[in-house]
Amino acid sequence: MLLAREFPGRPVQVRWSRYDELTWAPFGSAMVAEVAATVDNDGRVSSWQYDVWSQGHASRPGYAGVPGLLAGTHLADPLPAPPAVDPPPAGGGGTVRNGLPIYEVGPMRITGHRLLRAPLRTSAMRALGAHLNVFAIESFLDEVAATVGADPLEFRLAHLRDVRGRAVLEAAAAAAGWGEPIAEGLGRGLGFARYKDGGAYCAVVAEVEAVSDVRLQRLTVAVDVGRVVNPDGVCNQIEGGATQAASWTLKERVRFDRRRVTSRDWESYPILRFSEAPLIDVHLLDRPDQPSVGSGEAAQGPTAAAIGNAIAAAVGVRVRDLPLTTEAVVAAIEQNNN
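^ that's the sequence the OP posted. Answer follows.
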């Protein structure tokens, strides 16, 4: 835009390199969540507290009533560049998207904290805050289940009245062979959510091998999107979302120093390779009596949670900081042994 302004009436070609794209584009917001709960004498969750911090998840041009163009901030008289905002609750929210657990956990306090100053520009990453929120909630549920000596699936079902949600959980578990013996060094983990609290139900069972390194072998997914109009379309969306979420969860991290973004290519910003992509088995629960809802972002959070819970089941140690790299798992094991 600035080059075109300097040469009015003449065509200007601007070509961004991969370096430019990976260092100048906005990123998904950094997020931190803290979860606390109480458990009664019957082993049921009796209260729930959840705090999540985030930078905001929307800075698209014009969203906050300003141009919001990166080039505008480089003018001699720069245009305003307000911090990223969040979509309204009616639109699913941003920082607290899927921050409300679907389970019956007694009195709840859910608080979203939005940071107004941050070193990097942020905007809408697929699923917005649901990726981290579901990961945190579902990971914590597994920890509580372990504390009271309950099976993670049975523990969820004991706290869930939603009939459609129960059916999705049970379908994914049955298809994945939940409860059947598993080889040493392997772990199964479960993740579940209803996207934006009113969209698609999605349950994921991940199977992870954690011997010499962390390898995601299989994802079994059950999804309820209401009435299924195009089964292939739904499966494609769920498979794509699960694959992308697996890459986020196991590989992807923006790196930067005090001056610039340093993850500027596929070596410094690795993504899941074809050889690392898991088998994905999707099961659709058709509800022809229910309205159709979107499927595009339903798998992000449950996939991340399932992978995290599977790694914890495989190695006996939980890693809470994404991405769940082999190095992070080894460090957690060493810390646990010291």
